[in-house]
Amino acid sequence: MRNVSDLLREADPLGYEPLPTTEEWRRARQRILGAPPARAQRPRRRIVVAGVLALALTGTVAAYWSRAAVDVIAAVRFEARLAEQIPGPGLREVSLPGSIGRIYLHRETIVSNSDIARAEVVQGTGVSRFNISVTFTAEGAVKMLKATQGHLGRPVAILLDSDVVMAPVVKSPISGSAMITGNYTRTEAERIVNGIVGR
Amino acid sequence: MSAAPVSVALPVEAAGDDREARLAALFDLHEERIYRLARRLTASADEARDLVQDTFVKAARALKSVPHGFAREQAWLVRVLVNIRRDQWRKAAVRQRSAPALRGEVASASDVEAAVIAKRMVWTALDQLEPRRRAIVVMHELEGMTPPAIAALLGVRVMTVRWHLSMGRRDLRRILEPHMGDGV
């Protein structure tokens, strides 16, 4: 004896139909990224498609070159990694700067220099003199979000040149940007910013 | 590099203000969830893809009104998707689709074909539900969401969700009764 719920579950197309392929997603993504910001006069479809393709091609080439450049030139290596407050297998113990605390680092890097779209020096308040604001690329933001949304209440470590400079506890998933609130001088903060983005 | 003393606060802003990066992140984070719902609100995978595209194009055109934060972004997209579907449904009068015709096919087809046709018929029966009701039914029956969670996602009252669930089940039962087996 079957009820409405059983019939629906049996008929659910997602039970037997494949999801769109990566290629289909990529094409949909391109079309969407090419959509105009406001409802304006609707341009001809062929022109839009050509424009999207041209933009995508330019973007891909530019991203490839800028990424390669960042990897080579970056003078300060930036990394974010998940960490734990208790030791565990495969975790590396490190001391926190300016305190007696210790954390235990995961091996995998979530994001690094090539995932940063821009970094800038921001004047702090109180004890923080100058901070560093880091904005991730779209891919970087997704990586951070995916990593941190399952890591609430546990630390994420920010490393500069392999030194942990801070390890705040994740209170909500991190995505678009992060602020490195070190008590830096302007010169030091600028050096790091320039080093991170490889200028 | 010498590490300067740091505070332990990490002020985190939502996604950056760069339009394309935000839109790309929005798509990458929510595409699958939105497609799954779209597929369950439409008759075919092609229609579902179009619906996903319309939803994200709407987001692209009104990016500033998309709230920040994973759950709020998702709720915004789901509501837009359901509203687009409601507009399409009103225009297309999908309700007149094919359940009686398919019922005839079941009797004459082989077992395997009959099973496929029966599945399709059940799915087509959903077309007769108003899209918001259908969304509520599939979120509850197929995604396992509770009425309070659905209410929060759609921005309606829990009582409204329960009412749509009850009415949706009643409508489906009426359409599908011949296929539910004895005693149901």
Please provide a brief summary of the model.
Chain A is of the alpha+beta class and 199 residues long. Chain A contains five helices and nine strands; from the N terminus they run αααββββββαβββα. Chain B has eight helices and no strands.
For the largest interface, the chains and their residue counts are:
A-B, 69 and 64 residues
General form of chain B: globular
Describe the largest sheet of chain B: none
Distance between the amino and carboxyl termini of chain A: 69 Å
Average pLDDT of chain A: 75
Could you say which structural class the secondary elements and strand pairing of chain B correspond to? mainly alpha
Q: Radius of gyration of chain A in whole Å, from Cα? A: 22 Å
Termini separation of chain B comes to 73 Å
Give the helices and strands of chain B as they follow along the chain.
Answer: HHHHHHHH
Average pLDDT for all residues of chain B: 78
The backbone outline of chain A, from C-alpha atoms, is: extended
The amount of helix of chain A comes to: 25-40%
* pLDDT < 50 runs, ≥5 residues of chain B: 1-17, 98-109
What structural category do the secondary elements of chain A indicate?
alpha+beta
SSE order and pairing:
The complex is a heterodimer of chains A (199) and B (184).
Chain A: H1 4-11, H2 22-33, H3 45-73, E1 78-84, E2 92-95, E3 102-105, E4 111-112, E5 116-123, E6 130-136, H4 138-148, E7 156-160, E8 163-166, E9 177-184, H5 186-197
Antiparallel strand pairs in A: 1-3, 1-4, 1-7, 2-3, 5-6, 6-9, 7-8
Chain B: H1 19-41, H2 45-61, H3 70-92, H4 99-108, H5 111-126, H6 131-141, H7 147-154, H8 158-176
Helix pairs in contact in B: 1-2, 1-3, 2-3, 4-5, 6-8, 7-8
Structure, explained:
The complex is a heterodimer of chains A (199) and B (184). Chain A is built from five helices and nine strands, in the order H-H-H-E-E-E-E-E-E-H-E-E-E-H. Chain A is an alpha+beta fold and 199 residues long. In chain A, strands 1, 2, 3, 4, 7 and 8 form a six-stranded antiparallel sheet that branches. Chain B is built from eight helices and no strands. Chain B is globular. Classes of the chains: A alpha+beta (199), B mainly alpha (184). At the A-B interface, helix 1, helix 2, helix 4, strand 8 and strand 9 of A face helix 1, helix 2, helix 5, helix 6 and helix 8 of B.
